[in-house]
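Board notes, transcribed. Complex of a protein with zinc ion.
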Amino acid sequence: MNHGNNERLLINEVATRDGFQMEANFIPTEDKIALIDRLSGLGYAKIEVTSFTSPKAIPALRDGEEVMGRIVRRPGVVYTALVPNLRGAERALDVNIDEFNIVMSTSETHNLSNLRMTREQSFAQLAEVIALARGADVPVNVSLSCVFGCPMEGEVAQDTVLGWIDRFADLRVQGITLCDTTGMAFPTQVQALCRAAMERHPELQFTAHFHNTRAMGLVNSVAAVEAGIRRFDMSLGGIGGCPYAPGATGNVATEDVVHMLQCMGYDTGMDLEGLIAATAQLQQLVQHDLPSQLPRAGHRLTRHQPPADFPEIVARAAAKGDAKEYRA
Ligand code: COA
Ligand code: ZN
């Protein structure tokens, strides 16, 4: 079934960054590499491999260099990593990253909590990172946290968000990711911000990044795609969350969102069966249930056997006088 939504969507897998940063147990480096190598064959446009953050802040990703250096880079897939400061950018350059995903929050309180800088201090530092990236010919994407609300400050005004987008646009970054860090977004808000941002900056590549904290992740994804967003962050199994954002829970699950968008006729380029199979490997690594639904339910046309006494049910119905023959 195809409803004519033929424009290709670009999917960015964030389980090994947004996901693993939130896991209580350290995932062994070998296992991270094996999972990423498997995911590389499933149709992603991009994989956020790790982050180059302080190992004190994010101990789960302290092996960023080794992971980045040892994965098999599949041509056509962009291998990116989260970079919070100049030190992180230097580390990322050393391992020949394809893109810097630099990060700051549009909420002052969250930026201070997460990055230990004011927004102005972050911006000044990131401006240096952008200059470094330009010299090294590395594209820059900016992940803006809390653009749909902050768990500590409450509402973040749309004008505040657009103001930060303007400032990064002035520095000629390639793209902006609109991050719903703790699942505060709702569909009409998503449409309003996505449309306003895209109208104001048609030159920028916008990505939507939803967490499913309040069960609105899928409907927000629909709102974003209908507003014209073509790039999405998603996390296999639905793991994820920012350890410095109170109440954070997992991202929208890659398999759940891809399934939904494929049902709607969008070309995601993704191997859905391969994704579902990969969740088993992920679950072994994290050793807890995954929040995603699809691995349990299967795709919507998954067919189950009728009840064991079904022939008797049919025979009884026929004996009651329905002349039509039953056919499965
Ligand atoms: N990579 C590795 N080490 C780093 C680093 C980086 N990117 N940035 C700083 N450090 C080290 C410094 O070398 C210093 O080490 P030392 O104590 O051995 O001397 C130490 O960390 C403190 O440096 P400082 O610049 O004062 O950092 P900070 O303590 O103010 O922390 C950040 C600032 C941004 C590095 C830290 O808050 C961070 O990494 N946050 C990331 C949070 C995150 O990823 N959240 C989830 C994603 S949204
Ligand atoms: Zn996130």
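Strands lie at 10-13, 46-51, 78-83, 99-105, 140-145, 175-180, 205-210, 231-234. The chain is about 40% helix and 15% strand.
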